[in-house]
């Protein structure tokens, strides 16, 4: 270990993860009560410190795996949060990431083990430090991404109805969409395939189930909703 920077003060580096899920027509995030000081008992995102032998991306991926048991999740960096007084414990700079998961793929036993809850994005309480700021920025970034890439399918089951798809877009963007215009636009997208399967959980008549075809999408990169 060298001492090249011994005259400079040290700063702690951490990662915080905003994990989005979509359930019961609502966009949700995973939060829990802090189990350490400072801020013990306050609502908080899940995160951790970056080890000396890992990159910030690797630290975020490790943290997500510890929390969900899932690998290769869709994950994007939100940005750095480094206000001098953001953490009353030490001088900590945090790199925030957001990830998208299908709630049905998540082992609920892990959620219970970590003491976490799925919280409606529109009912998120006051969180520790600047975590509310992280959540808001992550939501805006996801909304922008959703308009140019079909990343929302990572929040849905492999088979879904058009109503589910529309509710997803409405939940992320925070506004209602015209049903006729939305479905007209969806029908123009070859990578959203209609199947012969019917979902009858919401009505006797039922609704056709659709699926996302990644192979077709790879040849149609000009997606925009």
What can you tell me about this protein's structure?
The protein has 225 residues and is an alpha+beta fold. It has helices spanning 56-68, 108-114, 131-148, 162-173, 179-187, 214-217, and strands at 12-23, 26-33, 43-44, 46-49, 74-81, 92-100, 116-120, 192-199, 207-212. Strands 1, 2, 3, 4, 5, 6 and 7 form a 7-stranded mixed β-sheet that branches. Strands 8-9 form a two-stranded antiparallel ribbon. It is elongated and about 70 Å long. The mean pLDDT is 91.
Summary of the model, kept short:
By secondary structure, this protein is an alpha+beta fold. It has 6 helices and 9 strands.
**Annotation, overall tally of beta strands:** 9
- List unreliable stretches of 5+ residues: none
Distance between the termini: 52 Å
Portion in helices: 25-40%
What is the string of SSEs from the N terminus onward?
Answer: EEEEHEEHEHHHEEH
How much of the residues is beta strand, in percent?
Answer: 25-35%
Number of helices: 6
Structural class: alpha+beta
Query: What is the radius of gyration?
Result: 20 Å
Tell me, rounded to a whole number, the average pLDDT.
91
């Amino acid at each position: 270990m060298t001492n090249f920077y011994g005259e400079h003060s040290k700063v702690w580096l951490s990662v915080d993860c905003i994990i989005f899920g979509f359930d019961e027509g609502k966009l949700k995030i995973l939060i829990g009560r802090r189990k350490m000081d400072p801020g013990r008992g306050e609502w908080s995102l899940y995160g951790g410190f970056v080890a000396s032998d890992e990159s910030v991306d690797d630290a975020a991926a490790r943290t997500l795996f510890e929390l969900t048991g899932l690998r290769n999740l869709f994950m994007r960096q939100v940005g750095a949060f480094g206000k001098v007084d953001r953490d009353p414990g030490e001088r900590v700079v945090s790199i925030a990431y957001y990830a998208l998961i299908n709630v049905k793929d998540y082992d609920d036993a892990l959620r219970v083990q970590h003491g976490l809850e799925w919280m409606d994005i529109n009912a998120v309480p006051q969180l520790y430090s600047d975590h509310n700021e992280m959540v808001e920025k992550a939501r805006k970034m996801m909304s922008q991404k959703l308009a140019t890439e079909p990343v929302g399918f990572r929040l849905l089951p492999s088979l879904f109805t058009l109503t589910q798809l529309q509710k997803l877009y409405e939940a992320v963007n925070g506004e209602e969409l015209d049903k006729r215009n939305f479905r007209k636009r969806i029908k123009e997208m070859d990578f959203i395939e209609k199947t012969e399967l019917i979902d009858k959980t919401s009505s006797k008549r039922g609704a056709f189930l659709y699926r996302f075809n990644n192979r077709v999408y790879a040849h149609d990169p000009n997606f925009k909703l």
